[in-house]
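ugh ok fine here u go
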Amino acid sequence: MKNTSVSVSYIGSLGRSLPTFFDMNWERNPDAPNTTFSFTGGDFAGQSMTIPNYRRVAGAGGQPMTRIQSTVKSEYNAFVVQFNRRFTDGLQVLASYTLASSTDTDQNSATFTETSSPYDVFDGSYDRGPSNFDTRHKVVISGVYAPTPYKGDGFWHWVVNGWSFAPNFNYYSGRPFNPNVSGASLNGQNGDTFLPIAGRNSYRLPALMNMDLRISKRFKFRETMALEFLAEGFNIFNRTHVFAVNNTIYNRSGTVLTANAAFGQVTGTDSTLYRERQIQFATRFQF
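structure:
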């Protein structure tokens, strides 16, 4: 096809020796080195889980001893297919599909020092998982269609020609989030509170799907002058975009974890870029 290109790309990024924060004033509890939890209801009903149990180092009291260390790793891999048709015969199309994976070992973007970041300061395996911004599938399709069906002049030229339609479609698969347990961390370290049997960032928000549309009608008076009327709709199907849910999967009572009925319920919608349906009108005079 003329004025059309198709490209296939690989994008990769590696992060090494990234900073994080460890509270080192912990030791394995000699009186109770492990704790076994049982599950009631939910995704893990009838199962049990045994994890290490920790306490403060003798003499440390409740004081943390934070160590800043550069041990976090991250990895991003993406496969991208892009279709690009330059404006030809009244049609322009730009479309792309991205298949991506982003993982890390609890990457930390804190501005100031934190007390402790990992789930277990002595076992980094708990922290491996999808990155907070991991988006597996992304589809973007935009275009402009400005046909000229009537080739003559006069009344029908003013009525039929000069229209322009410009849709913009976006689809993003849902981002991950932690399935947390109420209260402090189960191992007693006061770090992350996600459920270790499920894993870090093991659940995902609903996918985001959004359609914007711009329609305009242009009246050209002479070579250097034109009047254009525009109507623009954002999120024209008025879809609810979910950006936060109740992420407490279980409530803790001693060594019994009871399913939280509100887990997954929507708690936050919309953002700066994706909001409720909005429509605006404009007029533009070009000279």
